[in-house]
Every structure is written in C-alpha cells, then in structure tokens.
Specification:
Mean pLDDT of chain A: 83
Oligomer: homodimer
Radius of gyration of chain A: 26 Å
Low-confidence stretches of chain A: none
Shape of chain A: elongated
Number of helices of chain A: 12
Distance between the termini of chain A: 62 Å
DNA sequence: CGAAGAGCATAAGCTCAACTACTCACCTGC
DNA sequence: GCAGGTGAGTAGTTGAGCTTATGCTCTTCG
C-alpha cells in the first residue's frame, strides 16, 4: 500500500462519477449533488489525474458524453464501495441508537401466519432483553430494498433470492396443498388430483406474490390457462371464498387454517414444487449477537414445523 | 443517499483507523503513515464526529488503546473498502498498461506438466492476439496473494480455496495413483492395494505442497506413520527415485509420466480422494474478455483430459 | 451561413479543512 | 516524586476545492 496518488482519492470523486453516469451530463450531475458544473468538471479532472486514465468521453459541443471502458469498470467498483459505506453507516446508526437489543425483521403475510407467532414466543422466552420489531410488507421486493438500505436487520423471503449483497439461509420447504370446499369431488379421490384436474376448476388466486405467480405458471404449463375468478392478498379471504364454494386454491401449507370446517385440505404430493422459506440478511453488515440468536431460534422453530405436518 | 456528514468521510480516515488498529498507538500509526501524532489524533476525532460514536478507547496515560465495538465493526468495513480500492487500482493499472491483450496466469508444478501445454496451444490458436504470461510458484499461498494484490489475473489452484475475495471454478478431479518400480509386488495384485499395504513401504514425498500433505494425512490415518525416505518438489525426481527402487509414491495422475519404463502406475480406485483442480480469480476485479476466453479454453481442455484417462 | 444555445474547460479568488509544531495533561513505573 | 511515553488542544500556515466568470467547441435553426 505505497502512498501514491490513490490516497488523494476522495469519496466525492466516486459519487460524482456515479452521478454523471446516472444523469448523463456534468451539469445535471452538479445540480443533483448541489455543486456547480465547474466543481464537477474539476472533480472528474482530479479523478482522471489520480487513476491516470480518461474516464469520460466528452465529444465536445452539445453531444452526449459517455463513460470509457475504464470509467465503466471504475464505476462498478465505486458502486460497491458506496454500498459498503451504506452498510457501515447502517451499522453505526444501529449502534448509535443503542440497538444492540433491537432487531428489525421483515416478513410477508404467508410466513407470518404460522412461523412468526411460534418463533416470537420461543425467541422472547430465551432472549427477553431483545426487542423485535416486525415489518410486514405486501411487496416482497421492498423487503430486500430495506435490507440493502440497512432499514431491516433480517427478513424472511422465499428463496432463491435475486442477486445482490445478501446472505441467505434455507429454513424449510413449504409444500403446496389444494384447498377445496367441503364435499368437493377432488377431495374424495384416493390419489392426489393432477394439475389438469385442478386447472379445470375456478381458482382463487393471490396478488403481489411471486411464490403464487409460480403456482399459476405451473398450472398454465398443463396447456390450459387457469381460470382465476378472484384474487386477494389476504389468506383468510381466499380461504373464505373457497369455503363459500367460489373456487379452489393452491396454497402453501403454512398459510392454510387446517381447523376451518368449511374447507378440506388435499395433499398434492409435490405435484407443485414446494416453496423454500428462508432468512436473508445483508452480507456486508455486522451480525449482532441478537441477530445470530434469532437465526438460531428460527432454525429450531422451523425444524419443529417441518416435522409436525409429516407426523400429522 | 442524503448528503449528510458521511460525505465528509475521507479515505485517509479509514486508513488511519486501520493503521492504529495494526500498530496499537496513535504515534506509531502516525509514523507509519508519515504524519505527526497530532494529525492522526485529529483524523480520528473527525472520524468519530462523522460516525457519531467513540471508535477507540483511550484509557489515558501509557496504557494501551483498544478499539470499541463500533471501531471493530467499522474497521471490517474499512478493510473491505480498501481491498476494493486495491482491486480498482489493479484494474486501472492493467488498462493503463494497455493490458487488454495480456493475461497473467499463476500455476504450480503439478498442474503445469499436463494441462498447461495443451491449454496454451489450444488457447493461442483461438486467441493469437492474447499474450499469456505464466508465473509458476512453489509456494501456493503466494499465488493467492498475487491474485489479491492484482499481480495475477487468474491462477490454478487445488480447491477448496481459503476464504477471501476469490471466485473459483472447478475444472477437473485428478485422482491419485500409486507409482511403483517395475516388478513391484503391489503392481501384481488383482485389486488396488490398500492404504495399509502402501504405508508399510518406503515413500517418496513432496515438499511445499498442500495437496501432497493431504495424501500423507490420509496414509497416517491408517494408524501407522508413513516412512518418508526422501522429499522433492520435482515430479521428475520423485519418479526417478521410484524407478531406482528407493521407494514408491502416491501422486496425482496428471503429474506422472506414464511412458516412463522404469515405473508402473497403479490405480487406487479412489482410496485417496481425488484432488480438485480449479481456477481462482479475484471476485472484485474486472474480468476481461481475454480472461473469460481463457477460462472457457481451460474448461474445454480439462474436459478432454478427464475423459481420456478413463478411456485409456 | 451566421447567430444562438448547450455543454465542458479553464482562470482567479476565496474559504475552510487539515497538517505541523509546540504545549499541556495524564498515567505508569522505577 | 520524577522521568518517559501517550493522547489532546491550540495557533499558524498551507493547499485543495468551491464559486463566479469567461472561453471554447460543436450543433441547430432561421
């Protein structure tokens, strides 16, 4: 690590490069960052002096500028460095707020129903000093963004997760079951119904749920588009509609209320691949003792849950 | 990305934090970085003002300082950022030198013998404009360090690789074979000899080779320490000694010269787990087109090589 | 074809942050 | 209690980077 010109490199230089790449011009970037155009021009000049290469191609006149290859490569590094700084900032903010005993956990509805209550009970027994703040979101992508920004420490998620600065842990496989009204002929079969048989029936579907989209793709692969007569994001509503005879639903087992007398649950025996529920966290952020403990508790609770249905 | 105090953060702050952590005192860190003690003290004060937390515990007097929890967490982020900057620097240096057509590849002896000649021939036929610079090292760890510093673009390696900023690709499994003098009773057996039978014989071993250490651990696991009568890092020497009847050797198949009339090669049928040869590169560095092409060629050549011995 | 406009570069001046040099306050250990 | 080593504080100077103002280049349009 010789003390060469790279030590003169400043974060503002990288921020400026990114702003120019985003905005497409020196002037817009300057405006965005609250500088004058001249300042940005000088910053880029300094940056190019430091790395020794032209980073931005200025054709002159009102023609649009573009990043050189070196500029593009450096921009990727700059992005990574800024992301890492955000993670550091989030860690520091958490420590500053005295958050050693606070854990912000993201969930979505279908995982909330069965896993969360048990997990919270078990976790708060073993770690009463840790305050768990739950954040439920309809939009699953939002949860990932909050992880990336450091607004959440952990989140539940259906794996696999999109590429990003994430670390993941598989918790359990949640098989899909068919939910039908009491007395439905599909429930009377000795064998699990085929997808073809299911797709002929009216279906109650979900919105905003990638795991459910996945089911509909499976159904559509039979060659016949499923007839979705109603959509809701509330599992209770879906199950109520099934009970009322409006249609049937293909739901993850963990979301269905098995004590509901108006419906019957039919095992699909893997005809639709089980969804995988896991935990996701920011790969660059510090894992607090509380977070580690929460993960451990989640593993334990999910182990119980995956054994139970098999025994039942 | 609100323009808060974090934009005032400077790389020198992080470098200073790291220097203090390494040296254990403000003064030593200042000396190392070429500043006065006062400058370092002010830098840390500025850094603590930015993050809003005390990073270093100063007990006062000549008692040693220590990092607070926040300091340790921030230090890990700082290390990652500095590593990423080094990667960026290496990418820029490569571009500056007009290295689009140069590829620096690390190897070690045992992979050099069979794979490299074929690979270089095949690669230079398809990519004549790319200059490949080979760097062979006895010390395998040195190769990884050179990858990390950006002194190498790719290196061969026996997987798995130690944790670090690396990306790896498995190329082939190279099984171990027993090399014995012509006429050895072990070669006359109908079945592959057992480890117990091997360990009773005098062994020719290797130095400086983690893959070979692994073999000796396997042999020692029989309960009897192998009797290593000679060591050499040169495969030719080892094979020569076997041919001269000094002992026998357990070598990866790719390192042995099968045309040597003074020795016989005995298949061990997996009694010693095969070593895995792969390629390693820096996960944060830019992959040039030349590097991508080289990896492709390596995959193709190794596929051929792993099929051949099975057919032979 | 010339004027207008958009966009980056450059020059000059100013501000402020950071370094050096020096001093002080503090604690340990002999 | 004093010497030695450690970090903090203060004053002064230097320099990097910002703003303002201006210049240059290329395109567009009447």
């Amino acid at each position: 690590m010789e003390p060469d010109r790279w030590l003169g490199l400043d974060l503002r230089h990288l921020v400026a490069l990114k702003a120019i790449a985003d905005e497409g011009s020196f002037g817009k970037a300057a405006e965005k960052l609250g500088y004058t155009q001249s300042a940005i021009s000088q910053q880029i000049a300094a940056l190019e002096r430091i790395v020794g290469l032209r980073l931005i191609e200025r054709p002159g006149g009102p023609r649009p500028i573009s990043l050189t290859e070196a500029g593009q490569i450096l921009l990727r590094h700059a992005d990574a460095i800024q992301a890492r700084l955000l993670a550091a900032r989030a860690d520091m903010a958490a420590l500053e707020a005295g958050d050693a005993g606070r854990l912000r956990v993201g969930t979505f509805q279908s995982v909330g129903a069965k896993i969360i209550p048990r997990l919270l009970r078990s976790f708060s027994e073993t770690h009463p000093q840790v305050e768990v703040v739950l954040r439920e979101s309809q939009d699953e992508r939002e949860l990932l963004e909050m992880i990336e920004r450091g607004d959440l420490d952990l989140t539940f998620w259906t794996l696999p997760v999109d590429p990003g600065p994430y670390e993941t842990l598989e918790l359990l496989h949640d098989p899909y079951v068919l939910v039908v009204p009491v007395g439905s002929p599909l429930a009377a079969l000795k064998r699990p119904p085929t997808l073809k048989e299911i797709v002929l029936q009216p279906i109650i579907g979900f919105n905003h749920c990638s795991a459910m989209d996945h089911v509909e793709v499976q159904l559509a692969s039979t060659g016949r588009a499923p007839n979705v007569v109603f959509r809701s994001d509330n599992n209770g509503t879906v199950q109520g509609l099934v009970g009322a005879g409006v249609g049937l639903a293909v739901s993850p087992r963990l979301t269905v209320d098995e004590d509901d007398p108006s419906v019957e649950i039919v095992d699909l025996h893997g005809r639709v691949p089980a969804r995988v529920i896991g935990l996701v966290w920011h790969s660059d952020r510090h894992r607090s003792a509380a977070a580690e403990a929460f993960v451990e508790s989640a593993i334990a609770v999910c182990d119980e849950l995956s054994i139970e249905p098999a025994a039942a």
